[in-house]
Write a structure and sequence with these properties.
The complex is a heterodimer. By secondary structure, chain A is of the alpha/beta class. Chain A is 37% helix and 20% strand. In chain A, strands 2-1-3-4-5 form a five-stranded parallel β-sheet, sandwiched between helices. In chain A, strand 1, helix 1 (14-26) and strand 2 (30-34) form a beta-alpha-beta unit. The longest helix of chain A is centred in the N-terminal third of the chain and has 13 residues, at 14-26. Chain A is globular and about 30 Å long. Chain B is α+β, with helices and mostly antiparallel strands. Chain B folds into five domains: 24-143, 2-Layer Sandwich (Beta-Lactamase); 163-269, 2-Layer Sandwich (Beta-Lactamase); 289-402, PAS domain (Beta-Lactamase, 2-Layer Sandwich); 421-575, 2-Layer Sandwich (Beta-Lactamase), CATH 3.30.450.20; 603-752, Histidine kinase-like ATPase, C-terminal domain (Heat Shock Protein 90). Chain B is built from 21 helices and 27 strands. A five-stranded antiparallel β-sheet of chain B has the order 2-1-5-4-3, sandwiched between helices. In chain B, a hairpin with a 2-residue loop joins strand 9 and strand 10 (255-264). The longest helix of chain B has 42 residues, at 524-565. Chain B is elongated, with a radius of gyration of 67 Å. Classes of the chains: A alpha/beta, B alpha+beta.
């Protein structure tokens, strides 16, 4: 078994994180979750293969985090998929440097599809 | 007379020829002297030898006084050109001389007092058997009296003929014997044509009446010697006319005749009649005048005249005529109008009263009521030009004044109301010229009526919004249609606040706009509340989505796990749960969409896509949700368009979902697309309950749900079609419905294939 693809999910709602984690684990991704945007700012040396980022992060704007990641030479290679309940934000998410966008609520097939698109199958 | 004279002469000739010798000289002398015929005897040389007494009497001279008179030397006879005739007699001829007028002969001494004489004469010679003239006899007949009466007759005749009055003379049998020129002309006859006709030809009376009148005339004539009066006459051409006539009786040749003198008084009669008519007309005018007319005379104002309207208007009868003003109208005592009358009477200045209030007891119940008059008081003058009274010419304007007062009262009530409501209200003429604002307008805007009149309101509008407002307001004015718009109006503090403005046309009975009534309502609070509501809904739907997202994901993960286990029953149940979660998602999304539409945040994510592919996708997905319906696709050739794929798909979903929902008993739903160069049209046809005609336009309104026998039993928030129509409109398209109740509905939308960039 090769190294599983590592996906970091950031959302302020634990139930969402749990549901996404369960979904991605169906396909054997290595899933880390965080309810706090600060986790991403503090990332060092070990980086995920993909970042799933909620736009509203209880006090933090996902787009700011997105910009930070994409402006950091160490992290800018990490694909970012933004998640939001409002698809109207899709445009501004792209402007912030996000690679893709998925709206809540989603079909798990869609989520798995979009993740696979950027990191390939988990193994 | 002439003949008589000749006869005498013949007798005398016989005498002289046959019996002269037998008659003694003195007998002859007696005959000569006493003959009534003036006779002179001349010797053949012209010398007067003898003249008889009749001659002396005729000429008033004595023979002895003219001794030696020679007729052949009489110059007067030469002047009268009768000398040649005289000379003929001296040569032996018998000569009759025409009547000659002889002046008193100056050559004759002792000429009598007579002035002149008319004579008719014969002069002849007495000859011997040889024809030698022995003597010449001259005999005169005095015809002066006859001549005089003949002249008089000529004068009378001339007078008669020149009279303007018509004169006719008829005999006792009524046969006309004479008419003068005026009479003939008056009756239209030719000169003399009436003579010989019966007088009745000139009468306009019927036979019986004629008899009675003639009897009356005769009776009068016998009594007074004349008759005079008006007479109805008939002209030759049959027309009638009236004369004043005077009939007298005269005797001509011993027979009674009637002389009738008459004057045509037709024109005079007509003038009198016209005058009488004029008087009557003026009287009628006075009596029936639509204005009150009254005259008071003297310094104590005695009623001399008052027409019926005057009496009626002051509530009195004609008994007041002859009474003093304050006796006839005692209620006037102390009222200012009495002083006005006194002023007019003393100064002669006319007084013009407009809507003057006077208290009059018009009902006779002793209570003086307010009556209003427009009137003129005008002084009247006597023959010497002194003021002798006042004429009143008045119109009772009480009903008008009262009506106007009522209108003024109503208007005041309206203005009080308008000034006390919280809205800014105003009125404009049909052409949009604003002539009135309520006080709240001035209070809010801090403006003055002068600055606002007409189109002055533009100054309190936001320059960005003004063109849109003007355009719509002008369109409303042009079409007479109500105006509804929200726009900001600047307050006295310089801040703009949103106002909902509604303007309604006020139309007359023929449907023309006579004015506009506008009301601006400050909706700042309403807007704030709406914003709060939208914000709440946005947050709520966002918050709802979070658990739905995790539930959906858990369900699907679970479904995947059961699939792996091969537990088909659990998979089926989880699939149904997922479908319900999708419904919930849609409902939440709709609420969010509405708030976005309201706040203008419904953003279109345009991209190029294949329209038919989208339609296919949606149809296939929805076919899974229904076992009963067969979704029939009638899609045109594949075509690409530029627009919001997902939102467009949402509309197609909505239309097909509705078709499924509202046709529970039919089996097919037809989805058809049509494409042309610029547009794509999609129609969804169902065979369900249909929509009543009057509700068809309203189905696209927010929260509108068709009510009816069955329609209301269908679930829904009433947002789907509203959102669909907004999505279509935002993309520059059009959405509509055709429906027959009980037969089904066809919902269509038409989208431009290439959208102009959204501003």
């Amino acid at each position: 078994m090769s190294m599983s693809k590592k996906v970091l999910v950031a959302d302020d709602d634990p139930a969402i994180l749990d549901a996404i984690k369960m979904t991605l684990e169906l396909e054997d991704y290595d899933v880390d979750v965080t309810v706090n945007g600060e986790t991403i700012y503090k990332m060092e040396k070990v980086y995920p293969d993909l970042l799933l980022l909620d736009i509203w992060m209880s006090g933090q704007d996902g787009r700011d985090i997105c910009k930070y990641v994409k402006n950091n030479p160490h992290t800018k290679h990490i694909p970012i998929i933004m998640i939001s309940a409002s698809r109207d934000i899709m445009q501004s998410a792209r402007e912030a440097g996000a690679d893709d966008f998925i709206a809540k609520p989603f079909e798990i097939d869609d989520l798995l599809g979009i993740v696979a698109k950027y990191v390939g199958k988990a193994d | 007379m002439k003949r008589k004279l000749e006869n005498n002469h013949n007798v005398r000739l016989n005498d002289s020829k046959t019996e002269i010798k037998n008659i003694q000289d003195d007998t002859f002398q007696i005959i000569f002297d006493q003959s009534p015929v003036s006779t002179q005897i001349f010797s053949p040389d012209g010398t007067l030898i003898k003249a008889n007494k009749a001659w002396e009497k005729l000429w008033g001279v004595k023979l002895k006084n003219i001794q030696g008179y020679n007729i052949l030397k009489d110059k007067q006879l030469v002047a009268k050109k009768i000398m040649p005739l005289i000379k003929k007699a001296f040569k032996g001829q018998t000569v009759h001389l025409s009547p000659v007028r002889y002046e008193p002969n100056k050559t004759i001494k002792d000429v009598s007092k007579i002035e002149y004489r008319w004579t008719q004469s014969i002069i002849y010679a007495i000859k011997d058997t040889n024809g030698k003239v022995l003597k010449v006899i001259l005999q005169h007949e005095d015809i002066s009296d006859k001549k005089k009466s003949e002249d008089d007759l000529k004068v009378h005749y001339k007078v008669l003929e020149s009279m303007i009055e018509g004169v006719s003379i008829s005999d006792e049998n009524g046969i006309i014997v004479y008419t003068n020129a005026s009479e003939d002309a008056m009756f239209g006859y030719k000169r003399g044509e009436l003579i010989g006709k019966h007088v009745s030809i000139q009468n306009a009376y019927a036979l019986e009446e004629n008899k009675r009148i003639v009897n009356d005339v005769i009776k009068q004539l016998n009594k007074k010697g004349y008759w005079s009066g008006e007479w109805n006459n008939k002209k030759k051409d049959g027309t009638h006319f009236v004369t004043t006539s005077r009939i007298t009786a005269i005797e001509i040749d011993g027979k009674k005749h009637w002389v009738c003198v008459q004057e045509d008084i037709t024109s005079r009669k007509e003038a009198v009649e016209a005058l009488r008519n004029e008087r009557h007309r003026i009287y009628t005018l006075f009596m029936q005048a639509p204005a009150m007319i009254g005259v008071i005379k003297g310094s104590d104002f005695v009623f001399e005249l008052a027409n019926p309207l005057y009496l009626k208007s002051v509530g009195k009868t004609k008994d007041i005529i002859g009474k003093k003003l304050l006796e006839g109208l005692p209620e006037l005592k102390g009222q200012p109008i009495v002083d006005v009358l006194k002023h007019v009477y003393t100064t002669g200045e006319s007084f013009l009263g407009k809507e003057v209030q006077i208290k009059l007891d018009i009902n006779g119940d002793g209570i003086a009521e307010d009556v209003y008059f427009n009137f003129v008081y005008q002084a009247t003058h006597d023959a010497r030009g002194n003021i002798d009274g006042i004429m009143t010419h008045a119109i009772d304007v009480t009903p008008q004044v009262e009506a106007r007062k009522k209108i003024e009262e109503t208007e005041k009530r309206f203005r009080d109301l308008a000034d006390n409501i919280p809205n800014l209200t105003w009125m404009a003429n049909a052409d949009g010229y604003i002539f009135w604002y309520n006080s709240k307008w001035y209070e809010y805007t801090g403006t003055t009526p002068k600055g606002m009149e007409g189109w002055g309101w533009k100054s309190v509008h936001h320059p960005d919004a003004l063109p849109r407002v003007l355009k719509q307001w002008k369109s409303s004015i042009e079409h007479g249609s109500p105006f509804n718009m929200v726009f900001p109006i600047k307050g006295a503090d310089g801040k703009f606040r949103p106002f909902l403005t509604r303007v309604n046309p006020i139309k007359n009975e023929v449907g023309e706009v006579v004015r506009w009534f506008g009301a601006n309502t400050d909706i700042t609070e309403q807007k704030e509340l709406e914003e709060q509501k939208d914000e709440f809904l946005a947050i709520a739907s966002h918050e709802l989505k979070t658990p739905v997202t995790s539930i959906k994901a858990y369900g699907q993960v679970l479904q995947r796990l059961f699939e792996r286990e091969g537990n088909t029953k659990a998979v089926s149940q989880l699939s149904k749960m997922d479908a319900q979660i999708n419904k919930l998602t849609t409902l939440i999304a709709d609420l969010l969409n509405v708030t976005k539409i309201h706040s203008g945040r419904l953003v279109m994510q345009d991209e190029n896509f294949d329209f038919n592919e989208l339609a296919n996708e949606v149809i296939n997905e929805l076919q899974l949700t229904t076992d009963r319906h067969n979704l029939i696709m009638e899609l045109s050739q594949s075509t690409t368009m530029h627009g919001d794929r997902e939102r467009t798909g949402q509309v197609i979903t909505n239309l097909i979902s509705n078709a499924i929902k509202y046709s529970p008993h039919s089996k097919k739903i037809i989805v058809k697309t049509e494409v042309d160069k610029d547009y794509i049209t999609l129609c969804v046809q169902d065979f369900g309950v249909g929509i009543p005609k009057d509700k068809q336009d309203r189905v696209f309104e927010q929260f509108f749900r068709v009510s009816g026998e069955k329609q209301h039993t269908f679930p829904g928030l009433g947002l789907g079609l509203y959102i669909s129509s907004e999505i279509i409109k935002r993309q520059g398209g059009k959405i509509w419905v055709e429906s027959i109740i009980g037969k089904g509905s066809t919902f269509c939308f038409k989208l431009p294939r290439k959208r102009l960039k959204h501003k």
